[in-house]
Amino acid sequence: MSMATTAPTRRPRVNLAMIAPVVALVVLVLIGMALNPNFLSYANITNVLARSAFIGIIAIGMTFVITAGGLDLSVGSMAAFVAGLMILVMNLLTDSMGGGLPVILLGVALALFAGLAAGFVNGILITRAGIEAFILTLGTMGIYRSLVTWLADGGTLSLGYEMRELYRPVYYGGILGISWPIIVFAVLAILGEITMRHTAFGRHCAAIGSNERVARYSSVAVLRVRLMTYVLLGTLVGIAVVMYVPRLGSASATTGLLWELEAIAAVIIGGTLLKGGFGRVWGTVVGVLILSLIGNLLNLTDFVSPYLNGAIQGVVIILAVVLQRNTGAAR
Amino acid sequence: MRKTLIATTALMGLTAVPALSETIGISIPAATHGWAGALNFHAERTVARLSEANPDMEFVLTTTSDPGQQVSDLEDMVATRGIDALVVLPFESEPLTGPIQRIADSGVWVTVVDRGLSQEGIENLYVAGDNDSFGRTAGQYFADTLDEGAKVVVMRGIASTVDNERVAGFEAALEGSGIEVLAMDHGNWNRDTAFGLMQDWLSRFPEIDAVWAADDDMAVGALAAIDQAGRTDEMFVVGGAGMKEMVDRIRNEDPTVPVNVTYPPSMISTAIEMTVLGLTSGAPMSGEFIIASELITPENADNFYFEDSPY
Fold first, then answer.
1. For A2-328, which CATH class?
2. Fold match between B2-123 and B131-261?
3. Three-class SS string for B5-60?
4. Which of B5, B28, B154, B204 is the mutation pick for testing A, counting most A CBs within 10 A?
5. Which of the residues A52, A244, A252 would you substitute to probe the B interface, choosing the one with the greatest number of B C-beta atoms within 10 Å?
6. Mean pLDDT, residues A185-200 taken together
7. Residues of B in contact with A254 (CB under 8 A)
8. Which fold has domain B2-123?
9. CB pair distance less than 8 Å for A295 and B192
10. Domain residues of chain B, as ranges?
11. What is the mean pLDDT of the segment spanning B13-26?
12. Pairing mode of beta strands A250-252, A156-158
């Protein structure tokens, strides 16, 4: 609502800040083309996009949470836990039902439900018990991580061979040469962008993030909208897991490590404000692609010592945000 | 497995009497990754076996997830259980050296496993794997099977002394063989990182003859990426540490996974058994016991396959 009044004056100035992440992405692509002829090959592009899908799908949900002034540190552990649970149950079902498509459908349903439930738990404790999002999700992060370690008995949970072969095409297959994770990521990104821009829910998220009290006086159901952002994020974690499990067919204590930070970084690189009040899903998608491309470029060259990979990533993240903040500071 | 452990530890708590029986404390890292999981599995199995064989012997098994907690565990063992011997896999060398030294000074027999302390001469017995031999055994296999001019890629673990020693051993074994190492990068002992790394290497290099993944978790990721690219027939992958899925593929003579190199988590069993033997039989047990890394081949794979192990 407050957006509507400020939008006309903001638009002309925001333009520079708006394209900053895209500029960074284009620069990375140009560097890639110069460094390695295989960079633009079909296989490499597909690999990078499909690999981005997990973090990307989660980051879409994270955009809503952050826009509404929240944060969720538990998503990486949550993904690992949901993946572990899904594999465990699918293996049990295979024993009793003898495998086949129904087991996969049940597994998928379970993953989506578990994600939703986990998001709901985060959301309800943050909104009803009034615990700061940072602390609460730090707590659940530890809980989910321990739970998956416990489920796996410290080792690795692996999907039975037969089920793995049957489920495999969900990651490796696709239509018209575009693999499923890329399609799902793209569809969710478009839906997310529409939700953020053109629905009451999206506007309410921005309103709560920019000024919670004003939003409440404007009769926005603050607690419910905030709860919904966590439920949405949890469900998207479930979807990411559905795409992740068929890749290697396993989950362990190291699954999804640091995904939460990558997702948050992607959201911020994309131009969403960490303090809330303004978010854009397409920016998040660009942010995710920037992060994946850095990793990809470093692997395709011997340009820097592998010990410095983290440093290069850090520099690019900071540069991308600096570009934006300098141009955006005029607001 | 977990339940039985809780049951035995609870039982030990109830029957803890400072009688003439010997008490052995065992402190190891919690099962946070595959190898440590197997470590726990073998520790529990050995304790179960030894408790049965020596009814008058008490075992206290604790698992820790950080060095601070391990120090507290050790203090508790000494203060409340009066241990006669300690088998410890230090979480980190530096912070544990002082506390273990104090325990050793109080007259308790100390066996240190795998990760050495930062001061020499504290422990009575040192049982460890051999990281240099781990890398060298894999490198030797590459040098023996690959032709001159063959191209290989190397996935390293988390940057650490362990990783450096392994890679140094591998490189030393390759020396003079004419094998070209195309690229070396850190896969961090992680399946997902290894998957992405391998995908990128496959895009970058049109010819790869072999992959040294230095750990079976990374080998799993690398194999999936190679499979996806449809280049399974072009190269073989050698992992390490003897994960049961890999051992299974070796004994089924899978040409993509011809061999594996051990870094046995069951070394904890060696340490516990030797400690108990030292206490009960009086046979001399002090010194160092370095477990060489063995090459798992289709011929001997059955000896390395543990059906119940989580790893």
1. mainly alpha
2. yes
3. HHHHHHHHHHCCCCCCCCEEEEEEECCCCHHHHHHHHHHHHHHHHHHHHCCCCEEE
4. B204
5. A252
6. 94
7. 33, 189-192, 217
8. Rossmann fold (3.40.50)
9. no
10. 2-123, 131-261
11. 61
12. antiparallel
Q: What angle do CA B17, B23, B27 make, to 5 degrees?
A: 125
Angle (deg, nearest 10), helices B191-204 and A281-300: 70
Q: What angle do CA A155, A159, A164 make, to 5 degrees?
A: 145
Averaged pLDDT of chain A = 87
Give the distance from residue B182's alpha carbon to the nearest chain A alpha carbon, in angstroms: 10
Between CA B77 and CA B24 the distance in angstroms is 9
Grouping H, G, I as helix, E, B as strand and the rest as coil, residue B296 is: strand
Q: Is A312 exposed, middle or buried (0-12, 13-18, 19+ CB in 10 A)?
A: middle
Q: Do B159 and A307 touch (CB under 8 A)?
A: yes
Q: Tens digit of pLDDT for each residue in A285-315?
A: 999 999 999 888 888 887 777 778 788 888 8
Taking an 8 Å cut-off on Cβ atoms, the answer to whether B229 and A248 are in contact is: no
Shortest CA gap A81–chain B (Å): 14
CA gap B225, B235 in Å, rounded: 12
Please answer yes or no on whether A252 and B34 come within 8 Å at the CB atom.
Answer: yes
What is the Cα–Cα distance from B10 to A273, expressed in whole angstroms? Answer: 52
Q: Do B32 and A253 touch (CB under 8 A)?
A: yes
B131-261 classified as CATH 3.40.50.2300 = yes
pLDDT class of A58 with cuts at 50, 70, 90: very high
**Cβ–Cβ under 8 Å, residues B181 and B154:** yes
Q: Domain segments of chain A: what residues?
A: 2-328
Please, where are the H alpha helices in A98-221?
101-127, 133-151, 161-167, 169-172, 180-198, 200-210, 212-217
| Amino acid at site A246 | P
Contact with chain A for residue B190, Cβ under 8 A: yes
Start-to-end C-alpha separation, chain A: 18
Decide if B203 and A302 are in contact by the 8 Å CB cutoff. no
Give, as one character, the DSSP assignment of residue B232: G
Q: How far B286 CA lies from chain A's nearest CA (Å)?
A: 32
What ipTM was assigned to the predicted interfaces of this complex? 0.78
